[in-house]
Amino acid sequence: xxxxxxxxxxxxxxxxxxxxxxxxxxxxxxxxxxxxxxxxxxxxxxxxxxxxxxxxxxxxxxxxxxxxxxxxxxxxxxxxxxxxxxxxxxxxxxxxxxxxxxxxxxxxxxxxxx
Length: 114
Hints:
Shape: rod-shaped
Number of helices: 3
Distance between the termini: 132 Å
Number of strands: 2
Largest sheet: 2 strands, antiparallel
Order of helices and strands: EEHHH
Strand order of the largest sheet: 1-2
Structural class: mainly alpha
């Protein structure tokens, strides 16, 4: 059974379209495949660049946070060093020994020699 042409409008350009040409899809041309591949890889590349930029920004924020934390820890370390120096002062230790612990300097009778 052979399919014949369908005449829609006798004077138009579509007058001689056959049913076979309507039913059979033409494969994509090489140019269209190349275009789709180029668009796909371009989109993929742009997404990769956006991901890299976001990672860079996150790393920058993390670095700033860690630097601020480092400065705070250095200040805390300096304060603790100062507190250690104050607590180790000989005048303070002598005052605590005499007034709070009721200690006194040893006499010659209190010292034993072997």
